[in-house]
What does this fold into?
Amino acid sequence: MERWKVKPAASYRGAMSNARGRQFEAVIDAGCRYYRMHGIANIEKTPEPFRCLHKGAGGIARVRFMSHAQPDYKGVLKGGRAIVFEAKITDKDRIMQDVLTQKQADELDAFQELGADSFVCCGIQDRFFMVPYTVWSNFKLFFGRKYATPKDLSPWRVCFDGAVKFLDPYRR
It folds into this structure.
């Protein structure tokens, strides 16, 4: 039986989730361009590691994505401080702490231990937040549970004007 006939609902949800993630990264990228243009920071998306399995005609290739090795975004703030963050989005009314894999959490911890400012930039429905990793990794302590709602994250809400201005509360 063909793969798409086995679980069409799951395949559809996966495709929608991937599209939502790409859209979220696009508005974060717009924020990165804004901060670069204004001399505030130079932050870039970390390319996903992959290996080319086969090069086909017309520039089409078959690739295999390797394990996620680095935070989604890395860069430097004016003055020299390093910043790293993961990007996560959901269309639900809450975001689960465990949307970060253990590998992603370990990487944010490692960068933070070396002095980088580590965050999770997240979207919950139509609201966006830049949550310090020390808060994210301690949801149970801060909120009494392993998920957060927009109300919980309101101190870290950021502006959205077509771009996620993820540094706005951070610079205050």
